Amino acid sequence: MAKPVARYVCQNCGAAYPKWVGRCEACGEWNTLVEEAVEARPGAGRTGAGKRVAFVGLQGTAEPPPRAVSGIAELDRVLGGGFVPASVVLVGGDPGIGKSTLMLQAAATLARAGKRVMYVSGVV
User: By C-alpha distance, which of 80, 64, 76 is closest to 102?
Assistant: First the structure.
């Protein structure tokens, strides 16, 4: 069941607001907003006809995406065989454990193999 909705309409200019404010921002008049009930209709928040999407079952198998091997055996194992092109890998951990060193080594290996690499580093 839809929740009743109210809007506030300026009696001077007709501008409508979702909540009460003392002054109408459209015409500048004070205390001219009056509450009006809005009939809630199912699907009233939608705009346009929309497009139906057909759902596909999860049966069957799919080929795994191609991987770019980093040359670091344990990193490739953790990544499921290497980096997936056009994907992002988030590496986190305590300070000083070698995250940057590991990623820079992997990026250098991939760059030498002719792959395009972007390394982004940040601090939270």
Answer: 76
Hey, what are 22's tokens? Answer: 């003392």
- The answer to whether the CB of 89 falls within 8 A of the CB of 83 is yes
Residue 74 near residue 37, CB atoms below 8 Å: no
Name the pairing type of β-strands 33-38 and 5-10. Answer: antiparallel
> In the numeric block, which tokens belong to residue 73?
């055996």
Which run of H or of E encompasses 102? helix 99-112
Chain segment 64-95, per-residue pLDDT in tens = 889 999 989 999 999 999 999 888 999 999 99
Q: Where are the domains of the chain?
A: 5-38, 66-124
Full-model pTM: 0.49
